[in-house]
Amino acid sequence: MSRSLIIIVLFGMASLHLFAQVPEKIATDYEWQLTQPGRTLFRDKVPVGQIGFVAGKKEKATGEALQVLTDIAFTPGDSTRYFAVTFRVMEGDRLYGEVILDADELPELIKSARYLAATALDIAATERAETDITFRSRAGLSLEFRQVGQQQQLQLALPDPLSDGEIIRPLTSDQYSLFADLLDLAIYELNRQGANIRVKSNK
Asked: Under the phi-then-psi rule, with left for phi > 0, alpha for psi from -120 to 50, and beta for the rest, what region is 134?
């Protein structure tokens, strides 16, 4: 084996080793706290409520639901607490995917949900060439609104754990309003536990 070939092989092995050491991508501060070694971490998740997904013109229930849970973690003996909200797409006991939002992202999320719901109602009877509104969290949860002509499309998406794609589910404007109400309850509960989250009015 030539000297240059040996160098190439050794470089390739070193590169593979370095690639293997690359940590899994951490999207939120809360997830970073959960991955730190050498700690006993207490984590408490409490369901706030859920939204049942519907499909078709008759908006028939699909059996799937979006669950909203408060998510609080701390190390026993340490007064510092970490606050977040977890969103899950479920069907019975089957989990399709979940995503975590840091507490500091919640004010913008709740404002976006209310804005999308109001906008969908306000422009429903108008002709639009193409209108798009999107909120996307650091971890990949997104609220999306699109209108072409008078045809509207509202949906929620979150990362698919089994692929590089997304789990996408349609929502109605009323469900966006309900989503905002559930976030309001989640923020209330987190604040009751000491989160100090403040939401400014859209007005």
From this structure: beta
* CA pair distance 98, 198, nearest whole angstrom: 25
The H or E element spanning position 11 is helix 3-21
What's the pLDDT score for residue 203? 53
Q: What is the dihedral of CA 160, 144, 28, 198, to 10 degrees?
A: -150
Residue 134, beta-bridge partner list:
144
Q: Which tens digits make up the pLDDT trace of 185-201?
A: 999 999 999 999 999 87
| Side chain identity, residue 108 | E
Q: In this predicted model, what pLDDT tens digit does every residue of 34-47 receive, in sequence order? A: 888 877 789 999 99
The string of pLDDT tens digits covering residues 81-118 is 999 999 999 999 999 999 999 999 999 999 999 999 99
For residue 73, which of 41, 26, 28 has the smallest C-alpha distance?
41
Q: Residue 155 in contact with residue 171, Cβ under 8 Å? A: yes
Tokens 């859209």, residue located: 202
DSSP 78-118: ----EEEEEEEEEETTEEEEEEEEEGGGHHHHHHHHHHHHH
Q: Tokens 């989250």 belong to which residue?
A: 197
